[in-house]
């Protein structure tokens, strides 16, 4: 029995035939252009209000932007952010390892710590630490389950100043969130790699620092930087303990001169500047840890800008220097006509 195929024979490519040039038409994204136009309009409207509305009072903003009191408050904000972030992530790493350990006692303690400090609001924690002297007038080391501190004893009010209370509140609050971020990053590493390293006899410390941690960092870094940026802005909460950081300093100034909006703009711009710096650092650190996951890393914004400027310069030089248009690769006229006919 012979089967008959109804499909036409394949077209024969005649390489000696003249080439047919067909321009490549890019795909047009009309909705993308429409939404981009709306976004540009809203941005232009916002910028126009900045320069047309005199209630912004830009001269007052310029007067207080580099004010000595504001700069001291900014320095305290950055210092609190750095110290609390370091303590919070170090303690969070210890808690994450405790959560992943096989000890039921360590696992339960770490879970309870995370549960408590994520449940209580940060403002409440700061107030409790600042007023701890009301509950415990003295703290020290002595007999357990008693207040007989015969080894060493401290006055709680003097020990827990506003700065110490702020660091304790911010650090412990941050540690609870950092622990879950680090634990999630460690769990994202393929278990098969750890088992293979065990089979090869690689020591536990080397397995952790050379195999697990570099891969987990790709999952940890975005959330970690997100928490640091949130911590930078969260330091504004320490005004509750009368600590003169940036937001508290701005409040004191506008309560005296009644220039509320310009002073709030001063704080907002300083927060925006350092948030932008952290975002740029996050981009390049993530890009460094992404090596090995792709054959070629995506271009940086500067590389994209140079490429676009080069393309624009090539277009301005004229068609003589432009690359040749795309061709059909030497397919004959009859073949192209047959392809169009079969397509229809």
From TrEMBL:
Keywords: Amino-acid transport, Cell membrane, Membrane, Transmembrane, Transmembrane helix, Transport. The lineage of its organism: Bacteria, Bacillati, Actinomycetota, Actinomycetes, Micrococcales. This is Amino acid ABC transporter permease. It comes from Leucobacter chromiireducens subsp. solipictus. It is a multi-pass membrane protein. InterPro entries: AA_ABC_transptr_permease_3TM, ArtM/GltK/GlnP/TcyL/YhdX-like, MetI-like, MetI-like_sf. Belongs to the binding-protein-dependent transport system permease family. Residues 74-282 form the ABC transmembrane type-1 domain. It is found in: Cell membrane. The chain crosses the membrane at residues 30-51, 74-97, 109-136, 228-248, 260-285. Pfam families: BPD_transp_1 (PF00528). Gene3D superfamilies: MetI-like.
């Amino acid at each position: 029995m012979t089967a008959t195929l109804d499909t036409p024979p394949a077209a024969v490519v005649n390489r000696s035939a003249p080439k047919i040039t067909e321009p490549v038409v890019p795909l047009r994204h009309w909705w993308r252009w429409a939404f981009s136009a709306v976004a540009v309009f809203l941005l232009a409207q916002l910028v126009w209000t900045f320069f047309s509305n005199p209630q912004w009072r830009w001269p007052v903003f310029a007067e207080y932007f580099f004010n000595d009191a504001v700069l001291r408050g900014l320095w305290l904000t950055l210092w609190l952010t750095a110290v609390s972030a370091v303590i919070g992530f170090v303690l969070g790493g210890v808690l994450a390892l405790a959560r992943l350990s096989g000890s039921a006692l360590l696992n339960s303690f770490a879970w309870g710590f995370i549960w408590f400090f994520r449940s209580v609001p940060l403002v409440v924690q700061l107030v409790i630490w600042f007023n701890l002297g009301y509950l415990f007038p003295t703290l020290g080391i002595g007999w357990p389950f008693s207040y007989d501190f015969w080894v060493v004893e401290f006055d709680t009010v003097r020990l827990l100043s506003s700065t110490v209370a702020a660091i304790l509140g911010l650090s412990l609050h941050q540690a609870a969130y950092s622990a879950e971020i680090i634990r999630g990053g460690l769990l994202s590493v393929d278990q098969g790699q750890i088992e293979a390293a065990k089979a090869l006899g690689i020591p536990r410390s080397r397995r952790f620092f050379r195999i697990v941690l570099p891969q987990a960092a790709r999952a940890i870094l975005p959330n970690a930087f997100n928490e640091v940026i949130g911590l930078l802005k969260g330091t504004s909460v320490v005004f509750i303990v009368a600590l003169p950081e940036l937001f508290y300093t701005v409040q004191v100034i506008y309560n005296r001169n009644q220039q509320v909006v310009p002073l709030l703009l001063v704080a907002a711009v300083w927060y925006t500047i350092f948030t932008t710096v952290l975002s740029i650092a996050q981009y390049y650190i993530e890009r460094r840890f992404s090596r090995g996951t792709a054959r070629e890393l995506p271009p940086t914004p500067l590389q994209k800008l140079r490429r676009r400027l080069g393309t624009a310069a090539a277009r301005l030089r004229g068609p003589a220097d432009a690359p040749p248009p795309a061709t059909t690769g030497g397919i004959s006229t009859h073949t192209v006509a047959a392809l169009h006919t079969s397509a229809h």
